[in-house]
Amino acid sequence: MSSTSSAPGKVYLFGEHAVVYGEPAVPCAIERRATVTVSERGDDRLRVSSSDLSLDGFTVEYAGSDGGKPDVDVPTPLIEAAMGYVDAAVEQARDAAGRPDAGFDVEIESDIPLGAGLGSSAAVVVAGIDAATRALGVELDAREVAERAYAVEHEVQEGQASRADTFCSAMGGAVRVEGGDCRTLDAPALPFVVGYDGTSHDTGALVSGVRGLREEYDFAADTVEAIGDLVRRGEEALADGDVEELGRLMDFNHGLLSALGVSARSLDTMVWAARDAGAQGAKLTGAGGGGCIVALDEDGDALTALGLTPGCERSFRAALATDGVRREDAS
Ligand SMILES: Nc1ncnc2c1ncn2[C@@H]1O[C@H](COP(=O)(O)OP(=O)(O)O)[C@@H](O)[C@H]1O
Ligand SMILES: C[C@@](O)(CCOP(=O)(O)O)CC(=O)O
Ligand SMILES: [Mg+2]
Question: Is 165 among the residues known to form the active site?
Answer without folding.
Answer: yes
